[in-house]
Here is the input.
Amino acid sequence: MTETRESVAVAAVAPLYAAGFVTAFGAFSVAAGLGATGESIGLSLLRIGVLLALYDVAEVLLKPLFGSLSDRIGAKPVIVGGLIAFAGLSLFGLGADDTVMLAIARLGQGAAAAAFSPASSASVARLAGAGRTGRYFGRYGSWKSLGYTLGPLLAAVLIAAGGLPLLFGVLAATSAATAVWVAVALPALPPLPRPRYTVVDLLRQTVDRRFVVPTLALAASTAVLGASVGFLPALAAGDGADLIGAVAIASVLALTSTLAQPWVGSFRDRGRVSDRAGTAIGLVVLASGVALAAVPWGPAALFAAAIVIGMGIGVVTPYGFASLADSTPPERLGRTMGSAELGRELGDSAGPLLVGAVATLTTLTAGLAALAIATAAVAAGVAATPAKKAPAVPE
Here is the structure.
């Protein structure tokens, strides 16, 4: 009976894994494609930077709003609508020789991802049920990491075959197919009755340690991810690695996270390590990986650092999201996940900014050392909070 319930849940949640893949694939493939080909199609470095930022700006502004909307009207219409919008707005990228068309496509993709991403996270939590959130968020995060891993690689193949228009066309088709899958396979998950909240209630929920601690940990993990993907290849190139070897470091990091998250999520659900301890351990691993990268030991050490960082992200992500899901009333999961993902987006921006600012004044290795210290400080803060043991579930 347990195996039957598990298989039903997996069948229902599988299209949500695909939605997670779409948002990661869309973000990283276009970013890599614009970075590699932007100047060849007449874009200045400033315009490339603006186009890259539009996706993240839309997500930062809209994720909490769409998360709250999914609580009010149900997650499924928000997910399906977001995926359809992602597909339709990606078609503007078929006119990739026009900067305005590219800007509309990129901003639209970010806005659409802001709709279906937090709604998908909330749906994963509701479908998983009590005591199983770790393994389901581990799988969900694994598919997102797979999108991060394959995005740049697929972008290179597609752009070589048909330029940026082919990449945007594939993104549109992938999103449309996922929308159909969600519409067919995902249960309705109607909105739950919501108590009336005052402004004081909302503020209290926002500063509640059960929200703040995992969100801060998730933000720290994406800060490390964003900085590592950008600066570890730069360090490798400076140490004499060729282009393929330098770029491969980012892929090794993402692949390690992809493989680790399902295992870590299942381990978390066994309740042998509290959420506080598990999250703190993951952050310590992250800080250790960044510290390893900061030591000038050559490209081989950078690959080792990428593996350690990938493991740290693979621990923090399922622990963080599962902790949020288990401590949030089901009727406001969308808002909580949207706000948490906002924290992740801010971390994704803060990490590279911290490293870049310190590196400008000193060296890149000093910038990475500063990031390692900041991550270790977050780990210490998490470790200092009262522990709440994760619920044990019989296998």
